[in-house]
Inverse folding.
């Protein structure tokens, strides 16, 4: 299985970049992982929230293949405990899902076209975090999920 984290806009904070890189390096022992960053929309200050979401949607949808399992990281998505997320990923592997694409949208969320394309929605918390921080939280949870699958001592219950 291959997993892609698709994001809008680059991360500028060095401490977040270092953390994300740390988990991406660790993930290579478990799964083929790719962090794909779509550049920020140009002149976004002159656009309404709906216009910005529409432009982001076109860029997001362009990156997706028909067979991709697309999961939106969305505040209204399903919440998982770490053990349950690990079991969910394992189930996707057993069901021969070839490519899971987790998507972090822009500051205003997702356009309806992206919701229509998605297979599922997932929430990392009821709290709101910056889109850059979510990248770190997600990559760490992905790493944690694979260590749980392998019975490694990273996760403590």
């Amino acid at each position: 299985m291959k997993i892609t984290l698709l994001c809008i806009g680059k991360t500028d904070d060095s401490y977040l970049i270092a953390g994300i890189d740390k988990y991406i390096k660790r993930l290579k022992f478990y799964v083929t992982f790719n962090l794909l960053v779509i550049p920020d929309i140009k002149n976004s200050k002159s656009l309404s929230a709906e216009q910005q979401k529409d432009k982001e949607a076109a860029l997001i949808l362009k990156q997706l293949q028909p067979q991709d399992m697309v999961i939106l990281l969305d505040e209204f998505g399903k919440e998982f405990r770490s053990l349950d997320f690990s079991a969910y990923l394992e189930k996707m592997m057993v069901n021969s899902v070839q490519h899971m694409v987790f998507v972090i949208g822009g500051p205003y969320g997702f356009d309806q076209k992206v919701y229509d394309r998605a297979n599922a929605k997932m929430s990392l918390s009821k709290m709101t975090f910056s889109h850059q921080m979510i990248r770190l939280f997600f990559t760490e949870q992905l790493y944690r999920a694979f260590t749980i699958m392998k019975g490694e001592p990273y996760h403590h219950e």
User: Anything to note?
Assistant: The CA atoms of residues 133 and 142 lie 14 Å apart. DSSP finds five helices and five strands in the chain.
